[in-house]
Amino acid sequence: MSYKKILTVQDISCVGQCSLTVALPILSATGHETCILPSAVLSTHTAGFTGFTVRDLTEDMPGICAHWQKEKIRFDAIYTGYLGSTQQIGYVKDMLTTLNAPEFVSFIDPAMADNGKLYPAFDNEYVDAMKTLIAVADVILPNITEACFLTGAEYRESYDEAYIDDLLKRLAATGAKTVILTGVSFKEDTTGVMVYENGTKSYYEHRKISKNSHGTGDVYASAFVGAFMQGKSAYDAAGIAAEYTVRCIENTIDDETHWYGVKFEPVLPYLIGELA
Ligand code: PXL
After folding, report:
1. How many structural domains compose the chain?
2. Computed from CA positions of residues 57, 62, 64, 65, in that sequence, does the dihedral angle turn out positive or negative?
3. Pocket mutation for ligand 1, best pick of 119, 143, 145, 220 (most atoms within 8 Å of C-beta)
4. Distance from the CA of 210 to the center of ligand 1, in angstroms?
5. 111 Cα–ligand 1 center, Å
6. Any idea what the CATH number is for the domain that residue 169 is in?
7. 184 confidence band (pLDDT: 50, 70, 90)
8. What pLDDT was estimated at residue 163?
């Protein structure tokens, strides 16, 4: 197994099983050193809880990065998720060229929208800044809603393969090298992931669970990054992450009290086994 040093930049939702509380354990389980840069601290995530507190950590970022540069700390990969402000997107762009080790890989999960809507904290200015970040990314992991916001394509709930092909081409035209488009479903009982690299697409199809779960985008992206950094191809990593995420949802679906996230922890041995 290879052992990489990965920096993940996303928020700490203290309760809610998303962002850093998901990325850190999953990346560690996939065998990598995981460093964190919290973008904000929230009492909970913003999808379903009300009255949550938010502390934006934008102001702390330049000092933290300057210290790392002084210490000559470099990362094999940077993986970003939910960011705290538009200004942070600029800081992250700088990090891709100041904190990068040789053979560096950047993974950008736009983490800003779902089901046709932006998350409450974000606006068009944030979307425009995110466009500039995905343009310099090695791998991007949008869902269909995010893909539409990032490319100006019309959001559709039902679609055909031609619509997805158009989205993939638009995403690649932004400059991102590898596109992992999640939540692509052509049939009632299956969904999947489109992997688009060098003008070639491949589809990983898997069973669909009707329940809409929170935090699964973060579970998916974290497992993908961990597997990819273990040397898996984008397609194999996409499949491993999908199978892991489906099992996490299945492990949670019968527990109505657990509506805010998925119980991903007991399924970690499965993920580890896939990478052994
Ligand atoms: O899972 C994405 C996410 C991350 N962080 C916060 C969120 C969400 C989704 O709503 O609210 C704070």
Report:
1. 1
2. positive
3. 119
4. 21
5. 7
6. 3.40.1190.20
7. very high
8. 98
Per the listing, tokens 């310099």 go with: 136
Do residues 215 and 46 make contact, with C-beta atoms less than 8 angstroms apart? no
What is the domain range of residue 17? Answer: 5-275
pLDDT value for 212: 80
Residue nearest to atom 8 of ligand 1 (CA): 45
pTM over 0.90: yes
Question: What is the predicted pLDDT for the residue at 175?
Answer: 97
What is the mean predicted confidence (pLDDT) over 167-190? 97
